[in-house]
Amino acid sequence: MAWPLGWAILVHQIPDLGKGGSMVTFVAMLFALYRLSGALFTNHRYWFTTWWVVRVVALLLLCGVVMKLALWVSASAH
């Protein structure tokens, strides 16, 4: 994951690259996703940790959505 991110950061340091810089960043992110998926699906410790973190983040996201919805409903009632 670090090398593709490093390439993307390096490319964004060069001024006036235009579409070439965007293409390099896109390809670097594809490589990062490929490497991440390989790590997640072949290493069972990552699999367990990832699903645990996803559940916690989903719960926090759900709480945020419910609070925002409650504020929206209470603001529209006045």
Keywords, separated by commas or semicolons:
single chain, 78 residues, mainly alpha, 90% helix, flat
Report on the structure:
The protein is an all-alpha fold. Helices cover 90% and strands 0% of the residues. The protein has helices at residues 2-13, 19-42, 44-77. The longest helix has 34 residues, at 44-77.
Beta-strand residue percentage = under 5%
Helix content: over 70%
Q: Calculate the terminal CA-CA distance, rounded to whole Å.
A: 49 Å
The total of helices stands at 3
What is the mean pLDDT? 84
What's the number of extended β-strand segments?
Answer: 0
Question: Which stretches of 5+ consecutive residues score pLDDT under 50?
Answer: none
List the helices and strands and how they pair.
Layout: H1 2-13, H2 19-42, H3 44-77
Helix pairs in contact: 1-2, 2-3
In short:
The chain is 90% helix and 0% strand. With 78 residues, the chain is mainly α.
